[in-house]
Amino acid sequence: MNMTRRELAKQMKIAVMDIEKIERGFISPSETYVAKVTGVLGLSMTEVKNALKDQAEPRQSSDNVVLLRGR
Fold first, then answer.
1. Does the pTM of the predicted model rise above 0.85?
2. Domain annotation covers residue 61
3. Which domain holds residue 42?
4. Which one of 5, 11, 25, 44 is at 20 to 30 Å from 18 when CA atoms are compared?
5. 18, 30 in Cβ contact below 8 A?
6. Residue 41 falls within a domain, yes or no?
7. Residue 69 predicted with pLDDT over 60
8. How far is residue 43 from each of residues 48, 51, 66, measured CA to CA in Å?
């Protein structure tokens, strides 16, 4: 699904700036936020939790440098 931050914010009735702060890791999303995003995007909570878990795990590049995604 292709959706801009502005479109997502409008559907969720929140500020675009709040979405950007969450994406950049400045604030943590509330359970209400996660539930709203899940509903808007048509995802299950299991899919979201698995994606968040995968994103939090360190990744290694081919140069053996540990990279953290999403920050």
1. no
2. no
3. 5-56
4. 44
5. no
6. yes
7. no
8. 7, 11, 29
Name 68's Cβ contacts closer than 8 Å, sequence gap at least 6. Answer: 58, 59
CATH number at residue 9: 1.10.260
CA–CA gap between residue 9 and residue 7 (Å, rounded): 5
Task: Return d(Cα 62, Cα 27) in angstroms, integer.
Answer: 31
Residue 49 in any domain: the answer is yes
Token pair in block for residue 3? 């959706």
* Positive or negative: CA dihedral 40, 27, 64, 54: negative
- What's the number of CA atoms in the CB half-sphere (13 Å) around residue 2? 0
Q: What is the pLDDT of residue 60?
A: 54
